[in-house]
Amino acid sequence: MEHFDPSQAHDDRISLSVVLPVYNEANNLVQLYDSLHTLLSSLGMSYELLFIDDGSDDRSYEVILSLHERDPLHVRGFQLRTNFGKGAAYSTGFSKARGDIIVTMDADNQDDPADLPLFLERIRKGADVVVGWKQDGKNTRVRSHASKLFNWTVSKLTGVRLHDVNCPFKAFRREVLEEVEIYGDLFRFLPVIAVSRGFSVTEIPVQNRPRLHGSSKFGISRYHRGLLDLMTVLMLTRFARRPLHFIGVNGILAGGIGFAILLFLTIAHLLFELGVLTSESWDIHERPLLTLGVLLIIVGLQFFSIGLLGELIIARHGTRQDQSEYPIRQSTPDV
What we know:
Blueprint: E1 14-22, H1 29-43, E2 47-53, H2 60-70, E3 75-80, H3 86-96, E4 99-104, H4 116-124, E5 129-134, H5 141-158, E6 170-173, H6 174-179, H7 190-196, E7 201-206, H8 221-238, H9 243-273, H10 289-317, E8 328-331
Parallel strand pairs: 1-2, 1-4, 2-3, 5-7
Antiparallel strand pairs: 3-8, 4-6, 5-6
């Protein structure tokens, strides 16, 4: 998911944007729209619903177009050229959103729109990010335990204690998404990165309704990717400005072990030459450990050099990179 670029969003700001990534959810979209429209209309606030079709191969975008024709003032639709992934859908939605508050929800109707006012209340009370917590899960026992283990790992490694970092139901102040730089599948760690930037994060319990239509997109690979993304997040939040502190530690460790090995072999060889150690095995030229020691020192120097190069790059160019949008095939016309 790319960095939020406010220059790409419309100038006519509104109160609330709801970003809804869609992948093969044609049978859920009308019900979702009806629920959100009824709720948000009753709140008397300006809002928009952004349906981001991530290359669905069912009728999802046709349904989105019909919803736009039915309510062009509030419904905006974007169809990505192919299935880039949920992160791409979020990135597109964030770049197009006009709201001062931006809410993310899944389009499968498992997130209950009735909980949305709770998110808005927390934002108005000063929170920068509000994360949903699905206390009463509808998952299998294996998936439930895997989720708890994943969330526990995230909490321990990042220090950000959230019960359900993967919950798609979240709310953000606009400033958070303007500042936080995100790409790929790191969207699930937005709260963690927000905390590292000094924003306040809280969580609230939300309902987790059973899926009525379509099939779950869940797969065990989600946690595999999540753990790899977690390593990236740790690098971004702790060492993005000081790569030598991360890479250099590995270099010092490898080089230190290599130096200790060579020092030991050197002393043993000197004692062998002096006749203190009599076994031929103490001859340094007969020790395979010599090769390992030299190799570890070389690896340590390489790690250290890479860390120094990283420090030079950060000092000269900083961490911000140019970002480009994911290609959109078509979109609903702006009102």
